[in-house]
Design a protein that fits this description.
Largest interface: A-B, 36 and 35 residues
Oligomer: heterodimer
Number of domains of chain A: 2
Shape of chain B: globular
Number of strands of chain B: 8
CATH class of one domain in chain B: Mainly Beta
Strand order of the largest sheet of chain B: 6-5-4-7-8
Low-confidence stretches of chain A: none
Strand content of chain B: 35-45%
CATH architecture of the largest domain in chain A: 3-Layer(aba) Sandwich
Order of helices and strands of chain A: EHEHHEHEHHHHEEEEHEHHHHEE
Number of helices of chain B: 2
CATH class of the largest domain in chain A: Alpha Beta
Bound molecules: zinc ion
Mean pLDDT of chain B: 89
Largest sheet of chain B: 5 strands, antiparallel
Low-confidence stretches of chain B: none
Structural class of chain B: mainly beta
Strand order of the largest sheet of chain A: 3-2-4-7-1-8-11-10-9
Chain lengths: 388, 136
């Protein structure tokens, strides 16, 4: 297997982008990534795009072909593949691209993610997202996505010490980081009171515990490490790629408050990179809800089970803390265009490792991790990146 | 959910009919035709659940999709059945604040939701407290 490097990144701003179409979103992110890698479309050998539900959100399938076409690559007939695993689609598109380059089959490859969620009414998008869980045995009886994560939160709070304020602190921290990220959907700081006074969505989760509905796209370009310096002075090496699965329904899990797929993917990634959690300088985790960040930092091994709330309250996951978590603002504040999220996480880590993260820079960051979850934990992708 | 898709599993939904692996004895609800433990060595046969159990975790859904919007707020729970598996279902309570982890429940046949402009009504299993309440 060859070593693989990220040689270019591009990300649209995230938000409710009424004036921007699905195609425009992708093109903008792709163009930014090509420019960053000093490439024209000519040099691209293949394309992988993460997208959860364009069929529901914009009534368009066949996304791989559409994107190759509008990127001007249809005339060169390059392979273009859509990758879907709900909110983990971006993470898996990245992994497929890494595997393609590592195998030697393809050289310069785009991994992208895109989701246009705001063209439909909120109830339609809520229902489309519920398709990431078990439609027949969860959705059919009334389960929503916030409802399922609320049941994780309730189970967790019944078994481990976690206060409502500590949970709110996850959102407060992520908004603080988002306020320092030019692409973030929410760029204002909030307080614990903001969270506790927001309306209940599914007890105990309130509106400010939930990530928003977002339009956005992100793209990265990969190449063999040995060729990376042809394109950039600051290549970032892919140290590990890992993926794990679990039962589609939350009720069938071994443990409701532990995402076993996160535990396994995290362990596989650390083994592949020959690292321990204490050697990771920053991590982008899948905080679709505040409770998800608490579970993630524990399940990835940054603290023991039950300690995530205290770690957060003590500022250890904030900028300047022991392990900064979600410097981008996370899904909560940066926004969560589901198919794009996994790629945006890679963009954030690359920016940090290059030292280009501005007011949210983690000083001296050399190794970063990304953690992308599909559904309530049925798919997980974990990647580790390092300065090359 | 489309009408054929609902009717295909109507016996399982109305009667809490799952499956049981004849090789290891593990029971499945929702039904599985393939035992994940025994894989090809196992064979599954229908198994009717009584459906009594207790709440493992729950939430009160305040914002629902269109099909359930008229029912909010309602209690959604994961229930540990006495007969092995866990299921997701609604718990019918006079006051949603009465829901508790550990509460004993039993199944009842109820309207689940209404869907689409045709107003198709779906029935299935919900749960009610199996008195006495644990903290009464
Ligand atoms: Zn078996």
């Amino acid at each position: 297997m060859r070593d693989v490097a990220v040689i270019g990144i591009g990300c649209t701003t995230f938000g409710e982008k009424w004036g921007t179409s699905f195609r425009d979103l992708f093109l903008e992110a792709g163009a930014l990534a090509l420019e960053d890698a000093n490439l024209s479309g000519e040099g691209i050998d293949a394309l992988y795009v993460g997208n959860m539900s364009a069929g529901r959100f914009v009534e368009q399938e066949h996304i791989g072909a559409l994107i190759a076409d509008y990127s001007g690559m249809a005339s060169r007939h390059i392979p273009s593949t859509r990758v879907e695993s709900a909110c983990c689609s971006g993470g898996l598109a990245f992994r497929q691209a890494v595997i393609a380059v590592a195998s030697g089959l393809e050289d310069v490859v785009v991994a992208a993610g895109v989701e246009k969620m705001t063209d439909v009414e909120t109830s339609t998008s809520v229902d489309a997202l519920a398709a990431a869980a078990d439609r027949e045995w969860e959705g059919f009886v009334g389960a929503t996505f916030p409802g399922l994560y609320a049941m994780i939160a309730n189970d967790y709070m019944h078994r481990y010490p976690l206060t409502r304020e500590q949970l709110a602190q996850v959102a407060v921290k992520n908004h603080y980081n988002g306020a320092r990220n030019p692409i973030a959907q929410f760029r204002s700081e909030i307080t614990i009171d903001t969270v506790l006074r927001s309306s209940l969505v599914a007890d105990p989760l309130r509106l400010f515990d939930c990530s928003p509905i977002t339009d956005g796209a992100a793209a990265v370009i990969l190449a063999p490490l040995e060729r990376a310096r042809e394109f950039t002075d600051a290549p970032v090496r892919v140290l590990a790629t890992a993926q794990a699965s679990d039962t589609i329904a939350l009720h069938d899990r071994r443990d409701i408050s532990t995402l076993d797929a996160t535990v396994v993917a995290g362990r596989r990634a650390l083994e592949m990179a020959r690292l321990t959690p204490s050697e990771i300088d920053l991590v982008e985790v899948h905080d679709c809800f505040t409770i998800a960040e608490i579970c993630a930092i524990e399940d990835l091994g940054f603290c023991r089970k039950g300690e995530g709330g205290r770690l957060t309250e003590e500022g250890e996951t904030a900028l300047g803390g022991r392990i900064p978590v979600n410097t981008s603002g996370g899904l909560k504040a940066c926004g969560h265009p589901v198919g794009a999220t996994g790629i945006k996480q890679v963009c954030e880590v690359v920016q940090q490792l290059r030292g280009d993260a501005g007011r949210r820079q983690v000083e001296g960051a050399e190794i970063g991790m990304t953690h992308n979850v599909g559904g309530t934990g049925a798919s997980v992708a974990v990647h580790i990146l390092g300065r090359a | 959910m489309s009408v054929p898709r609902f009717w295909r599993k109507i016996r399982q939904r109305y009667n809490l009919e799952g499956t049981r692996c004849t090789s290891c004895g593990r029971t499945f609800y929702p039904p599985r035709s393939f035992c994940p433990d025994c894989r090809r060595a196992g064979e599954t046969v229908p198994f009717r659940f009584r459906g009594r159990g207790e709440i493992v975790t729950f939430t009160v859904i305040r914002t629902a999709s269109d099909a359930f919007a008229q029912q909010t707020p309602f209690v959604l729970a994961i229930i540990q059945l006495e007969e092995g598996p866990r299921v997701t279902g609604q718990v019918v309570l006079e006051d949603v604040s009465e829901a508790r982890i550990g509460m004993r429940v039993r199944p009842v046949f109820r309207r689940i939701g209404t869907e689409g402009e045709s107003g198709v009504i779906y029935y299935g299993t919900k749960y009610v407290p199996d008195v006495p309440y644990p903290d009464a």
